[in-house]
Specification:
Shape of chain B: globular
Order of helices and strands of chain B: HEHEHEHEHEHEEHEHHHEHHH
Oligomer: heterodimer
Strand content of chain A: 15-25%
Number of helices of chain A: 13
Helix content of chain B: 25-40%
Helix content of chain A: 25-40%
Distance between the termini of chain B: 26 Å
Radius of gyration of chain B: 19 Å
Largest interface: A-B, 22 and 24 residues
Strand order of the largest sheet of chain B: 7-6-5-8-9
Structural class of chain B: alpha/beta
Number of strands of chain B: 9
């Protein structure tokens, strides 16, 4: 199927993979990046789009998305999640395996790939389970899952409590060149906690999850990465202690990479006041010092990438008593704006580093195509207005779920045009 | 209808000193109603109150029921077992169905912290929290304060030590918020495993030795030690708990002055409190129970929109 060429005229083209940040034109043809340069000629059949004043960047890549299909289609489907992704500027998302049935075999991995191809929106890269049924007992078949399209393994949401299993996973995964992504939480310490343990949990009478529950497993994973030489990727880092541990590990040259989520650099556990279940997630919202440490870690590169942990939940599941509500919020359609608002416009992160942490590095860490505008690379591109102010209104989201704590919040910056494989898959309509 | 307390009583944390004093002052004349031969005033005649209990409760439920009946309200008790609640209906649906039958107030006991506030924001009826998870038990806090005021007078500057399992105690939180708001000094005392992290941020002093608390306080509020805390590993044994943190006559004898002894019940005699203390001359454990009815009458009456001159309104039936 041939795709009409697209010429993006006069935008600020940012491509950290090549150190590029200049006003230029970008031509996409045959599904690929054809050329970047000034005053490019328009091929006869090309659509020309004036993107002056906008940023043109390689499409955003999310390493941590819950698409809920199969099993949770009332919350999200691969098609609705992929639409939410492109509306948020993401051209590729990595789908976590905590589906029902769990994505722990090549059959489910293949199903997710096929559903994504059918939707033909964002690219969807499956993350296989580490253990069968995510039960933390027996290794899943990494080799077959990788052959079917899995790009990493994780038991996300179900922490790998057995250090032996984690060691084995790191060793075994290295044969296939894939990272092991871990949800770091010592369940024996977190036991039933509903929010961050501290002053606010004391006030609200809610059981707490101490920061140490995360940090213990961060430390363990770092030690196991050192032992095995495997690549451990630490999901959704939330505490200042974790940042410190990662910094020391990187100084020692251990193969550890890490991600942080927009809610952890934009909100604190004070948001749990009033028992708003949209402030309930795992890891929980932490303290202001933690939020600030996450921001600094993204600025200095201790934390490599921004990931959404997009976790759709049905209204009915969130509309209930706080301790009984499920964890998580949706994030695909607010992540770019939250990063722009709280990091770039706050003066902590240059725009080119935002593209680095949301596109270039995520693609590089999980060995995905994309994340670059080099000629011949996939035509996965986002055009965004970095300055426009807008008010979050979840009723306008493409995600099937509405569970966000940002309703009514004014944010700056938003995707306007998203192309996957050189084809326009999202064009923002209306104000 | 919203009176001086607002629509609901979900906790003491957000009440002002004036509101707390209003409840305590309103409770004073209600004490006398329960001493009459005919224990009834018509203050809530025609009002319907539902006692919605998602946790087992004997004392609190009966105390509320007496309070409602002595105010002439019509009352219905709904317990979680044997109702639609056990068929998977949500809390809000249960309450809205009750509301569709035109009720005026819901008294709710629920195992989840925040459940009373959650419900209060979603229904029109007045909501009274009868205990939500480990958050608050505001009428218990108020009856404790009323009992303390009976014995000690003005609470400002008085020292109250809350002893035991503060971590899992809604009674402790309501006591801390209410007492500190009225100017009392509050301490918590117990094994560190049973005190919330950063509890001192709530404006309380922390003692780990019961002897220190006894030496400091004017009154002790001794919390029930849930027996399952031992299985959960918070303490090694009930025997050791009694030996280290038990409120015993021997320990109280060494105090510089007699202490007022409170307990929200039900007691584990020989664990957190010894019988000679519980039944001793300084125990106000049964007066607490008596005051509980008066305080709950005051809360229901105020939430229904009543003013301080309730006795005028109910005059003709005396």
């Amino acid at each position: 199927m041939s795709v009409r060429p697209v010429l993006l005229r006069g935008g600020r083209v940012i491509d950290p993979s090549r150190g590029l940040d200049e006003v230029a034109d970008l031509l996409l043809a045959d599904g690929q990046v054809a050329a970047v340069g000034r005053d490019l000629g328009r091929p006869d059949d090309a659509e020309e789009v004036d993107v002056a004043g906008r940023v043109v960047a390689p499409g955003l890549v999310d390493l941590h998305t819950h698409l809920r299909e199969p099993g949770g289609e009332h919350m999200e489907t691969i098609a609705t999640g992929a639409m939410a992704a492109v509306a948020g500027g993401f051209t590729a998302v990595c789908a976590m395996p905590n589906t029902d049935p769990a994505m722990d075999n090549e059959g489910v991995v293949g199903f997710v790939r096929r559903q994504a191809e059918r939707a033909a929106l964002a690219r969807v890269y499956p993350i296989g389970a580490i253990s069968l049924g995510q039960r933390g007992e027996q290794l899943a078949e990494f080799g077959e899952m990788v052959a079917a399209g899995a790009v990493a393994v994780s038991d996300d949401g179900r922490p790998v409590m057995s250090s032996h299993l984690m060691r084995t996973a790191l060793e075994y995964a290295s044969a296939f060149g894939i990272p092991v992504a871990d949800h770091c939480e010592d369940l024996t310490l977190a036991q039933g906690g509903a929010m961050h343990e501290g002053e606010v949990s004391a006030r609200l009478g809610l059981p707490g999850i101490p920061a140490a529950a995360e940090e213990i497993m961060v430390a363990r994973d770092i030690l196991l990465a050192e032992l095995t030489g495997g690549h451990v990727h630490l999901c959704h880092m939330s505490t200042r202690g974790s940042v410190e541990l990662i910094r020391r590990a990187k100084d020692k040259g251990i193969r550890v990479t890490a991600e942080a989520c927009p809610h952890h650099f934009s909100l604190t556990c004070e948001r749990c006041e009033g028992y708003d279940t949209n402030a309930k997630m795992n890891p929980p919202l932490r303290e202001a010092e933690d939020r600030d440490a996450i921001r600094r870690a993204l600025a200095d590169g201790t934390i490599d990438v921004i990931a959404t942990d997009h976790a759709p939940h049905h209204y009915d599941a969130k509309e209930r008593e706080f301790p009984d509500a499920p964890n998580g919020i949706i994030g695909l359609e607010t992540a770019l704006a939250l990063a722009l608002t709280h990091l770039v416009h706050a003066g902590l992160l240059p725009l080119r580093d935002l593209v680095l942490r949301m596109s270039t590095l995520p693609a590089r860490l999980f060995h995905l195509p994309g994340g670059t505008l080099a000629a011949g690379s996939p035509g996965d591109v986002v055009v965004f207005d970095p300055d426009v102010e807008w008010v979050v209104d979840p009723s306008r989201f493409f995600s099937k779920s509405r569970n966000t704590p940002y309703t009514g919040t004014t944010l700056r910056g938003r995707a306007e045009l998203t192309l996957v494989g050189g084809r326009v898959v999202y064009r923002r309509a209306g104000p | 209808m919203a009176g001086a307390l607002g629509k609901d009583l979900t906790g003491l944390r957000h009440l002002s000193a004036e509101q707390l004093r209003l409840v305590l002052d309103t409770a004073e004349p209600f004490k006398e109603v329960s001493e009459r031969a005919i224990k009834k005033v018509p203050a809530l005649r025609g009002k319907t109150v539902v006692n919605l209990f998602f946790e087992a409760s004997t004392r609190t439920r009966i105390s509320f029921e007496f309070a409602e009946k002595r105010l002439s309200a019509d009352t219905v008790n709904v317990a979680s077992s044997g109702s639609s609640v056990s068929k998977g209906e949500t809390l809000v649906d249960t309450a809205r169905n009750l509301e569709a039958m035109r009720i005026d107030m819901v008294v709710i006991r629920h195992p989840s912290s925040g459940a009373a506030e959650f419900l209060a924001r979603r229904i029109r009826s007045n909501v009274v929290n009868a205990g939500d998870g480990t958050n608050e038990h505001p009428t218990q806090g108020l009856l404790d304060m009323l009992t303390l005021r009976d014995r000690l007078g003005d609470l400002a500057g008085k020292r109250v030590a809350i002893c035991g399992d503060v971590l899992h105690s809604r009674v402790a939180r309501s006591n801390i918020w209410g007492l500190t708001r009225l100017g009392a000094e509050v301490a918590v005392c117990g094994p560190p495993t049973l005190l919330p992290t950063r509890v001192e941020s709530m404006g309380v002093r922390v003692f780990h030795r019961i002897e220190e608390a006894i030496g400091w306080a004017d009154a002790l509020n001794v919390l029930r030690l849930q027996l399952e805390r031992m299985q959960a590993g918070f303490i090694p044994s009930l025997r050791e708990y009694n030996r280290v943190w038990g409120v015993t006559a021997e320990r109280l004898d060494r105090a510089p002055k007699p202490l007022v002894i409170m307990h929200p019940g039900p007691m584990n005699r020989g664990v957190e409190i010894d019988s000679d203390v519980a039944d001793g001359p300084h125990s106000v454990i049964l007066p607490q129970v008596t005051n509980g009815v008066a305080v709950r009458m005051a809360v229901l009456y105020l939430l229904a929109g009543g003013g301080p001159d309730w006795s005028d309104a109910g005059g003709e039936e005396r």
